[in-house]
Design a protein that fits this description.
101 residues, mainly alpha, 5 helices
Length: 101
């Protein structure tokens, strides 16, 4: 038996298996059930909050590479005189703009 014939037979077997699994799932699922896939997606972990230390490291790197004026302007843009004055809810946007510098 050639590799191509064997590969085609395996593909046909996989399609048959998928059809049987789908039929089984449709039989077993009650009208109000949420499919398992949706449950897993709904329970996905939330992204970890951005720390001020991470932002400070990025801004320090940018500042050391000669972008001190841009870093200061970025902090001022968020209504602060220094990094610690910035509202933590703005950290994601600040980090995004810091990477863009």
């Amino acid at each position: 038996m050639s590799k191509q014939t064997l590969a085609l037979e395996i593909a046909a077997d996989l399609r048959n298996l998928a059809a049987r699994i789908e039929a089984y799932a449709k039989e077993e699922q009650a009208p109000g059930d949420i499919p398992k896939v949706e449950q897993v997606q709904a329970e996905a972990p939330k992204p970890e909050p951005i720390s001020i230390e991470k932002i400070r490291a990025i801004l320090a790197e940018k500042s050391q590479s000669g972008k001190q004026t841009e870093v200061k302007a970025l902090i001022t843009k968020f209504g602060a005189k220094k990094l610690t004055d910035i509202d933590p809810t703005c950290y994601a946007e600040l980090l995004k703009e810091a990477y863009a510098l």
